[in-house]
Each structure stands twice: as C-alpha cells, then as structure tokens.
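Pasting as-is:
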Amino acid sequence: MSKIKIMSENLANKIAAGEVVEKCASVVKELVENAIDAKANNIKVNLEDGGLRKIEIIDNGIGMDKEDAVLAFARHATSKIYKDDDLFFIETLGFRGEALASIASVSEVNLETCSKDIGTHVHIKGGKIDLVEPADARIGTSICVTNLFYNTPARLKYLKSEATELNNCIQFIEKLALSRPDIAFALSNNDKVIVKTSGKNNLLKTIHEIYGLTVSSNMLSINKTSDDFEISGYIGLPGLLKKNRNHFNTIVNGRVVRNNDINRAINDAYYTYKHEGFYPIVVINIETDPTLVDVNIHPTKQDIKLSKIDELCKLLYETIKDTLYKNLLIPDAIIDDDNNNDDNDSNLVNNVNVNYIKANINNNEDENIVQTAMDFSSNDKEENIIKNEEFKGLKLYPIGQVHGTYIIAENEDGMFILDQHAAHERINYEMIKKKFQEDKPTYIDMLIPFSIELTASDFVTFMENKQVLEDLGFKIEEFGINTIVIKSHPTWLTKNFENDNLKTIVDLVILNHKKFNKDRFLDKLAKMVSCKMSIKANEHLSKEQMEQLLNDLVKCDNPYNCCHGRPSIMKFTNYELEKMFKRVI
C-alpha cells in the first residue's frame, strides 16, 4: 500500500496559513492589500481587542459578483496573474491567490460584497462554505474575521497580548498609509479611532497625520532619477532620531518592503550626523521597472530582491547625503519643552523652522501644514538659516571657556557655544579624510618599530587586508610566527599616541574582515583616530588655542557636527538672548 498520499485541500490551506498568517497584523495586511488592489480609495479597519476578537475591513473598491465571491476562497484563485510571464510584471500587492483560503481555513469569515445591483454574503468556518445568500447592494467589500486560529491551538497560543497585536496592526497601517497617500485609511480598536489619514494624495500631509507636526515640519524633500530608478519622498533632519529602524519607510513600486541593503544605504548616508544606535525617520518611494524586482521570495512579500541593487544603494546614499549637507543648520539653542516627550528618543528635536517649511512644501501641497507650523512657532523665532558656505564666512571671537569643555564665542549676530572636543574631532576627521585622497601619502619612519602578535586566524585575516593600510603610508612586514611589525606610519598620526592608535587600527582591520569595504573601513578609521587625537573635555585652553580651534572649524565642509553626529556648535541670536532675559516681548 502506498505511503505517499495527496493531502486534503483543507490541510494544505492550514499549512499555507502557517506561512501567510502569523498574527493579527498578517490578516490585516492581506485583507487591506486586497482592498487596495480592488481600487479602493477609502479603507476602514475595525478591530476588537487588538484583532484577537474581531478584524473587519470595509472598502469602497470595485467589489465582486456572486461567482467571484465564492471562488475567491479557493486556493490559488486570483484575478491578478494568469500566465507565467505575469510573474515578471507584477503591479499588484497580491498575486498568489493564497491569502483568503489560508485565513478562512483557520478562522470564521463573513464576506459581504457587491459590484453591480445585487450584493453577496458568504459565510465560511474552518475553510468550509456553509452559507451563500444575497446581501445589500453597497458597492465595495466588507470582510469580517473572527475566532482566529480556533482550530489550530498550536498557532493560537503564540498570539501575543492585545497591546502587542494592536501595535503590530497600527504599525502596518501607518506604513501602508505612507505608501498610499491617495487612500484614506482609518483604524479603530474597540470603537476608538487610532489612525486616520485624509487620502488627499499629499505625502507631507500624510506624514503630518501619522507622525505629527514636530516630525512633518523637520523633513527634507528628496527627488532623484537614474537610468533605472526614480526615488522621491522625505527624509528627517538629524535631530529626528529613533532607537530602532522601524521608521525606515521604504516603498518599491507601491509596496512597503524591508531590504537590508536599502536600509544600510540610508543609515550610511546619515553616518556622520548621528550617534551609533540611532536611526532617522524616512519615507522613500522607489520606482523601477517591475522586471527588476522579485517579490516572490518570501511568504509576506515584504522582503524583495532587486536587480542592480548596487546602483540603487549608490543613488540613495548620494541623494540623502547631498540633501543633508545642503540643508544642515546650526542647532538652535532653545528647545521647546513640549517636544521633550518619550517619543523623541534622541532629545535633539529642534523648534519648527518656518523658513524650511516654506521652502520644502510644494505648491500643490496642503498650506494648512505651513500655517500650523507658523502658528506653532508663534512667529517668535528669528528666521535665520546659516548654511555651510555662510558659516565659512563668519568671524568668531572667543571670550571664555566653561568647565574646560565649552568655548564661548561671539560676533555681531549673537553668541556661539562650541563643544571643544566635538569641534576638534570634526577638524581632525576632515583633515584625515583629505589625507586619504593624496596620491603619495607622507609618512614617517618609526625610531623603534612596533610589533603586534596575533592569533593565527587574526593574522591571516589581517594579512589579507593589510594593503589598505600600506596605501595610506604604513610599512608593515611579517615578523616571526603570527606577528607583524610596523616600521612607518602616516604623518597625521598624533605624536606620542602612535602605539595606542596602531593597536586599534590593526584591530579595526580584523574586526571589519567580513565583506570588507574599503570606503567604510577608511571612514571608521578616520573617526576612530580623529576622536583619539582631539582635545578632551575638562582640558583648559589658552585664548590662542581657542582662536585656532575656531579658525580651523569655520574652514570645515561640515562644521556643525562631530564625525559621530553630536552637535559641535550652537547659536543664540541676539534676539533670542534678549527674549530669554525679557528685554523684548
């Protein structure tokens, strides 16, 4: 007797459900994406107990007739692809025809839909249709899912708490709303509206509706095109930092995706403007030929493969970095206390800058955001943006030092406070980076060569990548078993600190051996050495030393942050000083 048997349709659907439906948010995702594919422009998500008790999706899409309403729950039934070639031109969010069958196999489903004059009601429990009858003729579809995983106890016990399931649903709807600002979304839980967007097809307005005024008024617009990709959207100023990557909103051809290469390119572009472990808020749309995208590599369709990914990452990196460079501001010294809430993880969010908002909202975008931002600022702040080139023309005069750490300087426009370590670190960082670009690096022979003994594995790793150091002016030779000796080093290494730096540099080569990237390594090297070489806190300086530091800082391409992203300088305008002391009202 044969041991191999074809499993039942219901069992196959339950297995598929294990891949497609992991939690309440998975159900919301599949059903809302179906509504979008049905051309809905108004979608409501009604939850009870975070979706544990009920998930209801109501849309105003094209709906279905009776035949399609029944057939939609069959496995591999879809209206989105018909032949093999269609897999290379996928322009819908769904296409496999598995979602409804999988959801229905592990829950109880009520579907009401209508495309013409007569509606249809279908009731399914555990994958079995037990009722098909006429229903109200409301164009669109309403689908209600209850008793999720009632017949698969192993799955049921892995559902999280109401708060966790609700939060997952909220995060998904927020990202989907940002990907489709032309659709009005509403999500409620236990009859309380939590997320609501207007569907005005205005991305900045949608960002405002999702994140609030503090974020929407501190976003920078990006728009760049290459031969194969077009990117657009908004990126947050370096002050808008979070402690996780959840706010990397990347959309490829209308699909919310997660891609490690894309995320890495975005994060690298902010590299010199933030602390390690903090991440920006971005909403980036990427448009490309569907043939360059493979969305059929993961059950959730959120992880994708992209042809020409290196070209895309380079475009993202350069566009974001250039935008940040051109729009960098000296941080305003006065922070609104109302902004110091738990959501502002970095505590670096600055007041609304009215000039910035006016410059970056397109003519067709909602002027209410501009007006709200102007009201928020109460017209009190001086509308003075100092750009990089303008700052290079400033003449600052040091007048003192506080706690051996902060330098106080002035000019005719106001008062400046510098973090001496951050400022000196920026100066050293840019100096070292320029040295890296020299065709013939200058070096100095060491009076006593410096030897380092390594483990066998570290020795092999180091020797594979030592050329990058030799190109900078290091002279490195083997010296016995698993030992190297360094006989010369570049002139930019600080005197009396050579040995400590050399140990750290060798460790850095070994640490970055996986997927060794020369540019990223050199950047890490410059940061590490510039930090070690810089003036420390609690180090008292003479007036001449402070003058030299100020003169060197204004020559930097980016004088506003240290190479790790901390502010190096803050400004109090004369107006702000007078306002603080009630000399003006």
